[in-house]
Specification:
With 278 residues, the protein is α+β, with helices and mostly antiparallel strands. The chain contains nine helices and eleven strands. Helix 4 runs antiparallel to helix 5 and helix 4 packs parallel to helix 8.
Amino acid sequence: MASRLTGRRVTAARAPSGAPADVTLEGGTVVMVKRGGAPGSVRAEVAGLRWLGAADAVRVPAVLGHDERWMVTERVPTGGPDGTAALRFGRALAALHAAGAPAFGAPPPGGPEAAYIGAAPMRNAPAADWPTWYSEHRVLPYLRAAVDAGALRPAEAAPIERVCARLPDLAGPAEPPARLHGDLWNGNVLWGADGEVRLIDPAAHGGHRETDLAMLRLFGCPLLDRVLAGYTETAPLADGWRDRVGLHQLFPLLVHVVLFGRGYTERAVAAARGALSG
């Protein structure tokens, strides 16, 4: 597969179970080979990587070849996080967001409307304002799916529905659409051995910049205070952004409820209640 997509002979391969394969090409170049999990997922990921890379801000692995089911990217040698790299990452993330998007919900150029966040479907449909878009195209579809699957009870859904009804008042000052990674949890942040951070596995779209920052906090990110320091010195955040973290975490938490069940329900409900009380 790597040979066909890159035009270079494969000399070695290592394929851990459930993970992209490390493949060595003729000449010693090591690449990553990844199989798409659903129709259109490779096209969405490739378009996202290229759109993020076009901002010339946060670095992403280069796409070396792809078709509808497979993609080949450069392999990033990784090291450990350090304060200097974290500060640079924060500054670069601010520059990525500032590169902007045509609209909230806009997909990357060439990317499909029917995209994915991890293994979950995610619809990229443009809208004029963030509160309407976030409610209609992010929170409510997953809330309904979670209730239908029995992973979230109707009584537990009530505070989340109240958040959606009050989003225009809870969202903070209006901002232009930012160019988001869209699935920026710590597992998609590679601390390169060269001291530069790369981002992988995007669910890229036009959105609110606080969403990426809330995702970094959701499951923990090394040196997050340094990342935020670099970000805010480059692009200060609107007053009250800390009170809105739970609001922006609501969508990824509902994704986890749908994918993994009631283990995430309590956190989703707590995020909604926190947003209402903030």
